[in-house]
Amino acid sequence: MIGASAAPDTLGAQRKEPAVSTPHLTRTGETLDVDHTDVAYRSWLKEAVRKVQADANRSADTHLLRFPLPEKWGIDLYLKDESTHPTGSLKHRLARSLFLYGLCNGWIRPGRPVIEASSGSTAVSEAYFAKLIGVPFIAVMPRATSAEKCRLIEFHGGRSHFVDDSRTMYEESARLAVETGGHYMDQFTYAERATDWRGNNNIAESIFRQLELERYPEPAWIVATAGTGGTSATIARYVHYTQHDTRICVADPENSCFFEGWTTGDPDVTCDCGSRIEGIGRPRMEPSFVPGAIDRMMKVPDAASVAAVRALEKAIGRKAGGSTGTGLWSSLKIVAEMVAEGRQGSVVTLLCDPGDRYLDKYYSDAWLAEQGLDIQPYTEAIESLLKTGVWPS
């Protein structure tokens, strides 16, 4: 098992590789000047940053969709629809931030590949930005990643590099970066720091701006799911910084360590197999997860995630990925608690990516049978809540 400190050590060694430019030494009196300036590189860098910023400038904000609940409850449930980004997922925001961070730090260089460890959606979005600025892209992913995500990576000019054990993605990504002279993006370390959590049109600021004219403009809860931990860190920090009373809940699927690490306070906790819910759940506590910033965590059975995402389609006519179901299940449990306590207010969760990427998984009864997942009890629990306002014991 690769320890949590292995990736930064490897990255530190990687970044000592010679830069594209050669230092130019000049003497001026008693001063020795070292000039790293490379006119061609700086011109390329300026254009690359412009292209990435232009992507944000021409992209409209994502919608807040309402999940229908009985009016008498006095509770509004929203889903922030991140599937409408150009690359179809929440990870488009992250990939844009990571590329700007890497470019402005001088880590991404012309002609050198960008490598990322990913379960799919981040790789799709990073392949898009790599193509935008004209550098190669390699995605290191579990072999079980959905075929549609692999197709999208290739569509954007990227290449998929598979591993049989998801726990080896970090080490393999770092190895490829050294081998190719490229840059290992390492979303699991840098997600929480690459995004400006104080504002600058991040996802949290967007949510609060869109709720301004709703009947409950300050949500009681925002529910996120954890892949890198970067989204929950951004939202939680923004809430604290802007002094809102909103609480942050993180929903964690099976075969993931965030819940156990958070409840035990052990950052070194690990698990032996990968998550079936693509995009979230990790075999270790990732460096970008900030446990002290959030208020609550829920452990969600995979069958419950699938039941919730199918219930979403029935409710609003939209298919979504399994990670959306994980967050929706936890949101519905919070709604049930609010009903039981007679509290009114709003709850926000995320529609992370579209369901057409997972037709052979979460929308396939054959896949459910193969995985030994029975969603019927969880489907009935959701239906009971929506009819009676009571969560089954």
From TrEMBL:
Cofactor(s) required for function per UniProt: pyridoxal 5'-phosphate
Any Pfam family hit: PALP
Superkingdom assignment: Bacteria
GO cellular component, one term: cytoplasm
Region (Disordered): 1-24
Tryptophan synthase beta chain-like PALP domain residues: 62-353
InterPro entries linked: Cds1, Cys_Synth/Cystath_Beta-Synth, TrpB-like_PALP, TrpB-like_PALP_sf
Localization: Cytoplasm
Modified residues (N6-(pyridoxal phosphate)lysine): K91
Enzyme class, broadest EC rank: lyase
Residues that span the membrane, as ranges: none
Single Gene Ontology MF annotation: pyridoxal phosphate binding
Reactions mediated catalytically: L-cysteine + H2O = hydrogen sulfide + pyruvate + NH4(+) + H(+)
Keyword Disulfide bond: no
Keywords linked to the UniProt accession: Cytoplasm, Lyase, Pyridoxal phosphate
EC number: 4.4.1.1
GO biological process, one term: L-cysteine catabolic process to pyruvate
Function: A cysteine desulfhydrase that generates hydrogen sulfide, H(2)S. The H(2)S produced by this enzyme modulates the balance between respiration and glycolysis, and contributes to redox homeostasis. Probably eliminates toxic levels of Cys (which can induce oxidative stress). A cysteine desulfhydrase that generates hydrogen sulfide, H(2)S. The H(2)S produced by this enzyme stimulates respiration in M.tuberculosis, mediated primarily via cytochrome bd with a lesser contribution from cytochrome bc1/aa3. H(2)S modulates the balance between respiration and glycolysis, and also contributes to redox homeostasis. Probably eliminates toxic levels of Cys (which can induce oxidative stress).
Family classification: Belongs to the cysteine synthase/cystathionine beta-synthase family. Cds1 subfamily.
UniProt-recorded name of the protein: L-cysteine desulfhydrase Cds1
Organism: Streptomyces davaonensis (strain DSM 101723 / JCM 4913 / KCC S-0913 / 768)
Encoding gene per record: cds1
